[in-house]
């Protein structure tokens, strides 16, 4: 599944266009490598996403095309969140 689609379906980022913009700005890495919106994800991949002053590390648990809103958080596990000091 594409990175931008996973971020939208899992509701980590609300809109797919916003997920694409974040990826294109180089603010997401997959398993330590810079990722584009079209990067293909697999179960077990680790994403690091920079949201403003915060780094969020997420592990992909499962990939599904459709998921209900209350089940969206089962697609991933938040490994850690850390503030970026500047």
Protein architecture, described:
This protein is of the alpha+beta class. The mean pLDDT is 91. It is 19% helix and 30% strand. The protein is globular, with a radius of gyration of 12 Å. β3 (46-51) and β4 form a beta hairpin. A 5-stranded antiparallel sheet has the order 2-1-3-4-5.
Provide a brief overview of the structure.
The chain is 19% helix and 30% strand. The protein has two helices and five strands; from the N terminus they run H-H-E-E-E-E-E.
Biggest sheet record: 5 strands, antiparallel
**Helix and strand pattern:** HHEEEEE
What class do helices, strands and sheet pairing give?
A: alpha+beta
The number of strands is: 5
- What number is the mean pLDDT? 91
Helix content: 10-25%
**Oligomeric state as shown:** single chain
Individual helix count: 2
For the termini, the CA-CA separation is 34 Å
Radius of gyration: 12 Å
Shape: globular
Order of strands across the main sheet:
2-1-3-4-5
Strand content: 25-35%
Low-pLDDT segments, ≥5 res: none
